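Onboarding guide, step 5: your first structure request.
Type a short instruction followed by the sequence, for example:

Predict the 3D structure of this protein.
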Amino acid sequence: MTVPAIAAMIVLLVINAAVTLAVWRSGVYEPEQKRLQYLLIWLVPLVGAAASWVVLREHSRPTARDDGDGIKGNPYSPWNDMSGSEGHDSHHHGGDGGH
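The system replies with structure tokens like these:
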């Protein structure tokens, strides 16, 4: 196998693993739906992961917890460790509220 082919396989594995983790952590799907998503992700590489990611992103539009950056506070992001920012008001400007 060539180096580019190995690199492409590693990238594909990382993408599939990240989306699998995001599906596992999500509250969007029921358990049976999650199993079907895992099959889609791994049996139809890249396309299955992309389709699952789009659905998760569509259901994870900014919420009250989200500070609008699209990642922090996103419960479906595989990179969100769900710690540290709970209860933190990033929009508080201090003082008397600008009065």
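Each response can be followed by summary notes, for example: The helical segments are 3-25, 31-43, 47-58.
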